[in-house]
């Protein structure tokens, strides 16, 4: 009895004090090890406040519990805020592992962390409401929400929440491009529930094909799996399904294993087009070698309950393909609440919310948008070139010296990242280097330029502008950045740390957001992964797979999910994938 009490006390202490969980996860292969380390944050100390003091707290309403929102919540440390988290999903999902969930490599509960676990150990006053925001009233600083619970809450399903600051991070929905039959007949892979449905359907297909009263043609149709979209998600799911067939189906369904067919459709000329060409070529060659049928330049024009219609992009030739299951992975679309909000603020023509470089929705000082629902509308340097010239020309001489330009060049690089990228790509350092590019090599260090020459020197800079990809990595970094801004809000009000205001006096309150690309992975099956890391470093093979294991284990949001995921990988190595239809 005493032993049981000691065990319960230890278990409770372990759960409630993540500082006990400072452990190392060591993944070792062939005598060498890759180490993934993550330190759980210590629980915050509760702050006792009077009712009057609590009323003074600024309220932050956070919409969503995805990558951006969760990173924001985990890094917000200023106790002077009252935070309300509103989302129909009461958990955070580690979406990069969803393809692994579809075939039983990882269990669905291993990739989710309840949002209440994330917010309860913070020293900030945080509350969660399981509801969906259906309208944003920016004029009155209110969000209108609707509970998604089955009970009717005594007839009061809708409610309103006031805010001082609003953080919109609701993500995006699947883009069907209004193709007939896609919504009704295809599976998506955006949420945990989608992965669970795909897993059940895969098992159903094999069980149905094993029934004795079917013809071989019908069995072939049922076991034809079609994946639409040759991006990272579509490629990884194809690889996971191929591994499941070759490693587990062979044992579990020996009578139908030879009838399985996997087809990957891509509208462009190559799969993984956002990766290095070496990775694209290797992936296409490996898939063909593995028996996965690749059809590039093939666009889907319609989907029925048993057939999929395609058209070749170049020839226009149409064909019909029978299938047993279709997984649709072709990009993202805007959620209705965001489209409604965009109409209110005059952004009707845009695909997603436009923000400035500080993640504020354009035209608003207290609304921020992160992740897949927004994009940064980076200001062009040529729009401000006259103001930049005037700011640098301190003596109002009408000309600019190299020294005068150097004094503001750091602020220009910080305010306009395309300028720094242009200098880096062309191996330039000063205004003289820019002038040499536009006027030739006969330019001296003592040169003075007028406004027209200055415009000519900067005319090609904006060609370096790039939009950020809609990835978990971008959303996570945006959440961390915005949390740091809120943590330093009061300090930066009196001591701004941002670049010079080109149009106006003083400095911006914060430095603008800068995305730092840390690399990307493309699992290709057979314990092989393609890795593209900063510095044009490309690695393909088994060693990259172990790097993938290490990184994804370390990026889990809690030690609970980290242990679950690693144990799932270990279980799969020993016992294979679970084929139960649960």
UniProtKB/TrEMBL annotation:
GO cellular component terms attached to this protein's record: mitochondrial inner membrane; peroxisome
Main enzyme class: oxidoreductase
Protein name, entry field: External alternative NAD(P)H-ubiquinone oxidoreductase B1, mitochondrial
Species name: Lithospermum erythrorhizon
Keyword list, A-Z: Calcium, FAD, Flavoprotein, Membrane, Metal-binding, Mitochondrion, Mitochondrion inner membrane, NAD, NADP, Oxidoreductase, Peroxisome, Transit peptide
Membrane topology according to the record: Peripheral membrane protein
Statement: the UniProt record of this protein carries the keyword NAD: yes
Family: Belongs to the NADH dehydrogenase family.
Cross-referenced InterPro entries: EF-hand-dom_pair, EF_Hand_1_Ca_BS, EF_hand_dom, FAD/NAD-bd_sf, FAD/NAD-binding_dom, NDH-2, NDH2-like_C
């Amino acid at each position: 009895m005493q032993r049981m009490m000691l065990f319960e006390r230890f278990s409770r202490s372990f759960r409630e004090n993540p500082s006990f969980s400072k452990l190392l996860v060591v993944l070792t292969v062939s005598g060498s090890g890759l180490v993934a380390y993550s330190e759980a944050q210590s629980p915050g100390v509760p702050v006792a406040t009077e009712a009057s003091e609590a009323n003074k707290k600024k309220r932050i309403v956070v919409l969503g519990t995805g990558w951006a929102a969760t990173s924001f919540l985990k890094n917000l440390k200023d106790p002077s805020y009252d935070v309300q988290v509103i989302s129909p999903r009461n958990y955070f999902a580690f979406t990069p592992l969803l393809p692994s969930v579809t075939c039983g490599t990882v269990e669905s509960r291993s990739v989710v962390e309840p949002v209440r676990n994330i917010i309860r150990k913070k020293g900030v006053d945080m509350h969660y409401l399981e509801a969906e925001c259906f309208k944003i009233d920016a004029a009155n600083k209110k969000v209108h929400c609707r509970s998604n619970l089955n009970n009717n809450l005594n007839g009061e399903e809708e409610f309103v929440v006031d805010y001082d600051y609003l953080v919109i991070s609701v993500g995006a929905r699947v883009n069907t491009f209004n193709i007939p039959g896609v919504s009704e007949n295809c599976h998506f892979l955006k949420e945990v529930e989608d992965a669970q449905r795909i897993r059940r359907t895969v098992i159903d297909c094999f069980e149905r094909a094993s029934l004795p009263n079917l013809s071989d043609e019908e069995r072939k149709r049922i076991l034809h799996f079609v994946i639409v979209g040759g991006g990272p998600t579509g490629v990884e799911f194809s690889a996971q399904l191929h591994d499941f067939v070759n490693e587990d189906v062979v044992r579990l369904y020996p009578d139908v294993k030879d009838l399985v067919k996997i087809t990957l459709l891509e509208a462009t000329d190559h799969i993984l087009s956002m990766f290095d060409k070496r990775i694209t070529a290797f992936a296409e060659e490996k898939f063909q070698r593995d028996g996965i049928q690749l059809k590039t330049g093939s666009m889907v024009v319609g989907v029925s309950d048993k057939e999929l219609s395609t058209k070749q992009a170049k020839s226009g030739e149409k064909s019909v393909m029978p299938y047993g299951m279709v997984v649709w992975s072709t990009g993202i679309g805007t959620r209705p609440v965001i489209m409604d909000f965009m109409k209110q603020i005059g952004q009707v023509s845009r695909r997603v919310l436009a923000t400035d470089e500080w993640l504020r929705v354009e035209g608003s000082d207290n609304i921020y948008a992160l992740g897949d629902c927004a994009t940064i509308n980076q200001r062009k340097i040529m729009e401000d070139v006259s103001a930049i010239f005037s700011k640098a020309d301190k003596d109002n001489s009408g000309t600019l010296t190299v020294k005068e330009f150097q004094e503001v060049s750091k602020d220009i690089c910080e305010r306009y990242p395309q300028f720094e990228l242009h200098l880096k790509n062309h191996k330039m350092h000063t205004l003289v280097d820019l002038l040499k590019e536009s006027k030739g090599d006969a330019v001296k260090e003592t040169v003075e330029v007028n406004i027209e020459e200055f415009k000519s020197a900067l005319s090609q800079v904006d060609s370096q502008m790039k939009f950020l990809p809609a990835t978990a990595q971008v959303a996570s970094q945006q959440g961390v950045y915005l949390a740091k801004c809120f943590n330093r809000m009061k300090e930066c009000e009196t001591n701004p740390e941002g670049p010079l205001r080109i149009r106006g006096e003083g400095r911006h309150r914060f430095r603008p957001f800068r995305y730092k690309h840390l690399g990307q992975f493309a699992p290709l099956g057979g314990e092989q992964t393609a890795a593209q890391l900063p510095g044009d470093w490309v690695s393909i093979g088994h060693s990259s797979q172990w790097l993938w294991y290490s990184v994804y284990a370390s990026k889990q949001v809690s030690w609970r999910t980290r242990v679950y995921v690693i144990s799932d990988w270990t279980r799969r190595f020993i016992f294979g994938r679970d084929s139960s239809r649960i």
